[in-house]
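User: I'm designing a mutation panel for 3-phospho-D-glycerate guanylyltransferase and want to avoid disrupting the core. Could you give me a predicted structure to guide residue selection? Please restate the sequence first so the numbering is unambiguous.

Assistant: Good idea. Sequence first, for numbering, then the predicted structure tokens:
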Amino acid sequence: MSDGNAGLAGGLCAVVPVKAFDAAKSRLAEALPLAARPGLASAMLEDVLAALAAAAVLRPERLVAIRVVTSEPGAAAIAARHGAVVEPEAAPPAGGQGPEAGLNAAVDGAARRLAAQGTEGMLVLPADLPCITAAEIVGLIDAHGAGTPGRSPAVTLAPARAGGGTNALLASPPALLPAAYGPGSLARHSASASARGVRPRIHGSRGIALDIDTPDDLAALAGMQPGPCTARLLAGEPALAADPVPDAEAARRAEAQAAAQEQAAAAKERLGALWSMLRTAVPGSGRS
Ligand SMILES: Nc1nc2c(ncn2[C@@H]2O[C@H](COP(=O)(O)OP(=O)(O)OP(=O)(O)O)[C@@H](O)[C@H]2O)c(=O)[nH]1
Ligand SMILES: O=C(O)[C@H](O)COP(=O)(O)O
């Protein structure tokens, strides 16, 4: 992976915007006291960056750098553990619109810098996706397509499970679209791509779809497999000592394991559907 600016031209740079930990996750106020929210925000960031670092090992020629755009001092140590570079965020424009003004300004600033450096594309992921896996990131990057010099513009979007949000935004070139986060942003990002003559690819992915905004999202974590830092936090265990940046073999094993789990879940779903079809088609075939 690039150590910052060098060698970006041929690939994608991941950008993770991070709000100050002590202001983050305010919509969880009903479920989590203020004192618990910075810990959750930093654990989820740790899991997102670990998944990105592992994906960079699996697709070294495509995912060439990871940047964390933030004014949060505590993000530096976390970023460093995963080979990510911190970029200070620009202040949002005065009178910027809505609570997402800071997020949109941070992403647009990162996109402009990447465009100026000749980077092929940008992958924006929020820091609140505790279930994201390296295999899912690889799936997203592969769906976006191979990078070729002077490739045509492309946009790939991964939806949030709720609220019409955008949980992953891949744009080639990086500043193709202005960031338009906020409720219903998936439709805005899609329309913005179409207006530029680019048909957006919509790439659904189960772990990426769960961003933790509300108490309902926290409850949804119960049926999912969060990354190790978030899992330990939710189990009330002390934080994990950071895993080192994964080697290629460990990343491949994790990818194979995640793919096997996904296949097993899909097979179970197909069997369930087949069983209920049979029960409908052949009355009295059910055991109940
Ligand atoms: N750099 C930067 N990142 C932001 C800003 N606002 C939100 N983010 C990040 O954008 C992603 C999505 O954020 P949200 O879920 O909208 O905001 P949040 O602070 O995590 O949660 P709420 O306080 O409940 O809105 C997360 O990674 C946030 O850390 C901002 O002003 N600057
Ligand atoms: O547009 C979005 O997806 C959101 O506003 C930003 O993320 P959130 O769903 O975490 O608020």
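For picking mutation sites, this is relevant: The domain at 12-246 is CATH 3.90.550.10 (Spore Coat Polysaccharide Biosynthesis Protein SpsA; Chain A). The chain has two domains: 12-246, 248-288.
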